[in-house]
Amino acid sequence: MISATRLHQLLGLIRAGREDLFYGWPEWQTLREDVLKLDKRECVLCREQRHRYRPARIVHHVKHLRDRPDLALSITDPDTGERQLVSVCKKCHEALHPESQRQFTLRKPPLTAERWD
To answer: Which end of the chain is more exposed for a tag (fewer CB within 10 A), N or C?
Structure first.
């Protein structure tokens, strides 16, 4: 559960577009390690959907941090009892957040119009 003071700080970070700073909080680092241990450092999505083992290094907020900052430090959602934080691999996390993937644009046009197809 997140304290009222920390929730106020987190809301300020979200308004400023700097919620990434939340992931440096000591409370998050401790909880992150607890969730990884709970899931045996295994990607729960790969295990459940693909029946494969893949190591997890990321703890994902099922209900996004911006949408439910009150659940930022909760392993389960007290309203539903469902998991709020789950361990996932990088590939699954990228699939869950395609909007966060960098979109590269060319700085300069290519030197030639040469094509290889």
So the answer is: C
